[in-house]
Structure formats: C-alpha cells, structure tokens
Amino acid sequence: MREHMDLVHKLVSQTAKRVPSYVCRDDLVSAGMASLAMAARQFDESRGVPFERYAATRIRGGLIDELRAHDWASRPVRSRARAVASTTEKLTASLGRPPTSTEVADAAGLTVGALAHLTDDVHRAVVLNFDSLVADHSAEALLPTADGDPEEELLRQERAECVTKAIDALPERLRVVVRGYFFEERTVSEIADELGVTQSRISQLRTEAIELLRDGVNAQLDPEAITPLSARSATVSRRRVAYRAAMAG
User: d(Cα 69, Cα 72) in Å, to the nearest integer?
Assistant: First the structure.
C-alpha cells in the first residue's frame, strides 16, 4: 500500500484532466485508495502479473465506478452526445457557420425530436450550483425544463441502478471480465493475462456473465422474461438460483 500510493495520485491526475471541474478530486483519491487496498488483499503473485499492473487496473475501475455513481447521464447518453458533438463540429467546419438542428439531426441519423430529447438528457446531467443561481436570480434562465415523462426517467434510473448492482453481484472472475471488457476498454488478451486463462475462455466467461446479468435483472424488474431453469444442467440452474438470491439481497 505505502509503496504504491503514488500510483493512485498519478491515475487520479490523469482522470481529473478528462472530467468536469466540479468533480471532487478528494473523492477520486478516496476511491483510488480503496481500490488499492482491495488490490493488495486480492493480489495473487502466482498468476505472474506484476502488482503495479494489477493494482492500476483495479484503481482505474474504482475511479470509473466513482465517476459513474455521480453521473446523472447514462453511458449510452454520453456516447450519443459525443457523436452528435463531433457531427456538429464537422458541419460547422464544412458550412462555415453553426448548423441548424435539422442539419445536425439529418447528419447524425436522428429525428429533430430525438436530438432535442438527447440534449435534454445531457442538460439534466449537468451539476449546477443552485444556491448561486438563486442568489443571482438566474435559475429560471439556466435550469432546463423537463418535457419528458418523469415516470419514464425514474424507471430508466432504476434499470441503470439494477444493472450496476447486478454487476456487483457477479462472481469475482465474471465481474472482472465485464468491467474490464465493457467499462475499462481493455482487450481480451489483457483480461486473459490477468486471470491466467486463454482468450477463448474469456469469451466464454463474457457470454456466461451476460446471461447471468440478463437473468438477474429480469428477476427483479421483469419476472415474466426470466428464462426457465433447465433440468438438463443442474450446475447452471444452481448458479442462476444463487445469483438471483444475491440480486434479491
């Protein structure tokens, strides 16, 4: 822990350059230190992976989890927003003027209504100092109005939270695969090296994790969509039953 504390501050500094200024650096450092402690407890030298490399992976994952916990916009919303921003920049360069909403929507393959809805989603994710806005009598001008259905937004947030908890409930190896592949943008070979298995095995674990996630989320939010337990594979059935129980807890 003492030898690698500088690694936490280094990764926090790299992360802080790519996030909004309102993100609390102390919170990132705390999350990084907690991940370093977890890495120290779970490190297995017999796997042949250097501790610094293993710890860096766990710390990056902890920082991502910390940022995601405070991000009001989902990952797909952020991804679509970046794509639209890139399209807008290209149109501005080619047209020599700011493009209209219709031009941006056409270039991005969206309807004007879908573009407006995406913009609202991004605006709702922006954290503002409401006290200072009220003091300046500018809150009404800056805070966006929500034209969407509040119930739909609550359901979306509930689904997102359920998926996050479903990932946390996965067995350790499956959780490493899911976080590494889908959230940390690591290659299959990197994950295989960390876990000491073949790349084909990582693909199998990824498929198994996705099936468990789908089953666990459906068990909580859409019971009618649950895949019936198979009598042919008692091992798979026991695994699903145990996972559903972990999700329920």
Answer: 8
Q: Any idea how long the chain is? A: 249
- Here the tokens at position 82 are 């970046």
CATH topology of domain 1-72: Rna Polymerase Sigma Factor; Chain: A (1.10.1740)
Domain 75-126 adopts which CATH fold? Answer: Arc Repressor Mutant, subunit A (1.10.10)
Is the torsion defined by CA of 90, 92, 98, 101 positive or negative? negative
pTM above 0.70, yes or no: no
Res 143: pLDDT: 45
Show me where the domains of the chain are located.
1-72, 75-126, 148-249
* Phi-psi category of residue 152: left, alpha or beta, with phi > 0 → left and psi -120 to 50 → alpha: alpha
In Å, what is the CA distance from 229 to each residue of 42, 142, 232? 33, 52, 9
